[in-house]
Design a protein that fits this description.
UDP N-Acetylglucosamine Acyltransferase, domain 1, 7 helices, 2 domains, globular, alpha/beta, 18% helix
Length: 365
């Protein structure tokens, strides 16, 4: 389906073990959303950074056989292998620039995927006539009731929901526990939980199989990751299979309110990209100790174990063991941890996934 591997360093560390097309635009991956859209057009291939927005989908679905969509020489999408004509159009708001763009575009992703999620998750929108009945169960809704969408088996009790700025979606089996307060737009994936007293400021999304607590503001949490206790995350992206210890917190704004220098993997250094807000960007399978305090725009590589005195450095290498010095994990021990963590969720490390981890380890030896 894709024209490239999605391996641009702009998405480090989130694409170290999987292509950028597998990252979440909203609460589901770019690949899954394009898969839904292109089920009737199997000959179409697209660039991994092309987002499944309404505008982009309209152009892609309108491509004729032998036609490609290009913008300033970049092939964005094409239908068929032999190109006979070119459709020129801007990709301005349909292009994913880098890892931090995932939290910036979270609201757009949730809005564009809403109609598809209604079918995929079998969502039911609440009706205005239900407001009083839900209030008797402690569910207080500020804003339109029909912006709340519940999947089969979703649970709500004693919570405050604000839909004035956007929809709130609960996937099948998802639960928002007592005392939580959520401002949309927000989506909670299948069988995920917001723990008691959680505060959510949208746009934000939590993938499937996650447990989340504390305070989140404009955060994207990928599948199977946990932040089950207190602590603040803002303007952040967390990969798959991560675990943040109790009271793990990240800064998302400099004390000077100035422009933030962000890690550039290609140039191996920190460079300004024009952002004032940026929190934690964490690769897959990484873990933190309790009370870990991350500085603004910290990047944590995949399979890192973050612990030690003081604040961690702003760039932590993959497979790090602690954040002092350059001590690395033993590969087989790291793989053993991965298998143990996945087994707790009845998941299995596939041969391809193991090979990706071994390849990444080799790259950082």
């Amino acid at each position: 389906m894709f024209l490239d591997l999605g391996d641009s360093t702009d998405f480090y560390p989130l694409n170290a073990l999987r292509g950028a097309q597998n990252l979440h635009f909203g609460v589901r991956s770019i690949a899954k959303q394009w898969g839904d859209l292109l089920s009737a057009k199997p000959k179409v291939r697209i660039h991994s950074q092309l987002l499944p927005t309404e505008h982009a989908a309209g152009i892609v679905l309108g491509l004729k056989n032998g036609q490609s969509w290009q913008d300033q020489g970049v092939v964005v999408a094409q239908c068929g292998d032999i190109i006979e004509s070119i459709h020129e159009a801007s990709i301005a708001n349909d292009w994913l620039e880098d890892a931090a763009s995932l939290f910036e575009k979270c609201g757009d992703g949730l809005a564009s995927d809403l109609s598809r999620l209604k079918l995929t998750w079998r969502l039911r929108a609440l009706a205005e006539e239900e407001r009083e009945a839900w209030a008797q169960r402690g569910v207080v809704v500020h804003g339109p009731m029909d912006r709340i969408h519940l999947g089969p088996g979703a649970l709500l009790r004693d919570v405050s929901l604000n839909t004035e700025e956007g929809d709130i979606l609960l996937g099948p089996g998802a639960e928002i526990m007592e005392g939580s307060r959520v401002r949309g737009p927000f989506a909670l994936g299948e069988n995920s939980q917001l723990r008691m007293g959680t505060l959510i400021y949208g746009p934000a999304s939590v993938g499937q199989g996650c447990k989340v607590g504390g305070e989140l503001s404009n955060v994207v949490v990928h599948d199977w990751s946990n932040k089950a206790h207190g602590g603040f995350l803002g303007n952040a992206v967390i990969g798959e299979w991560c675990n943040l210890g109790a009271e793990t917190t990240c800064s998302n704004l400099k004390n000077t309110y100035g422009e933030i220098a962000e890690w550039d993997e290609a140039r191996q250094g920190f460079h300004a990209k024009g952002r004032q807000f940026c929190g934690l960007i964490m690769g897959d399978h990484s873990k933190t100790a309790i009370h870990t305090a991350f500085s603004t725009a910290t990047v944590v590589g995949s399979l890192a174990q973050v612990f030690g005195p003081g604040s961690p450095p702003r760039h932590i290498l993959p497979f790090s063991w602690g954040h002092e010095g350059e001590k690395r994990q033993v590969l087989e021990k790291a793989l053993s941890t991965v298998r143990r963590v996945m087994a707790r969720r009845n998941q299995t490390l596939t041969p391809d996934q193991e090979q990706a981890i071994r390849h990444l380890y080799g790259d950082h030896t």
